[in-house]
What does this fold into?
Amino acid sequence: MRVVQIGELKIGEGKPKICVPMMGKTIDALTVEAQEVSKLPADLVEWRVDHFADWTSFSQVKAAAKAIAQYINVPILFTFRTAEEGGESAIGKEPYKNLLSQAAILPEISLIDVEIYFDTQAVKNIISNVHAAGKFVIASNHDFEKTPPKDEIIKRLCYMEQMGADISKIAVMPQEKSDVVMLLSATMEMYDKYATGPIVTMSMSRTGVVSRVIGESTGSAITFGAAGKASAPGQIPAEKMAELLEALHTIV
It folds into this structure.
């Protein structure tokens, strides 16, 4: 399986990498947040741009990226989570395509999150533009209501790879404990039989929290650790996540 390497960071090898979300609404808030996040055991940082009040102004987005990068010395993942997939803001096809494509050119940004079912043509264009800029694509899909059947989870992850994703990610909501088992089983089958690049899976909420810590055993390459406010249900504080991953790693 291909490993995604950014500098010294190797995603898809060893322990799951800890990604810490940042959700500041202003440049000043992001600057303070970045200083706090820089003290945490983060392997990469996700900038949730849908929380940024001035996301419609790319000059402000550019300025915010520079402000964050002053304090963050790990790769930055640029994410605009749409309202349809649990994000803070709604966005049209052209603005989404333009924002993500422009973000890929920013030297501070290493990876771009692309919602794989946003719009087929827009997604194709974004992925092409991101790769042309020499950056990596994390394709994503989020279901905050349910856990799809195992075959459907695998189908979605395979589709992400077919569309050109470097890393494929799916997050689902369990309704019962058996849903978590299904997600973990789908992850292992995808990893063992189909994946050509790193995959990231998680079952959300308290019920699914185990899925966030056992990725080294199941094949999930990234997990999310919170810095204060969580960006999704079930996130563990980053410091605690690092402890848990290390404890499991010494056993594995």
Summary: Residues 177-194 form the longest helix (18 residues).
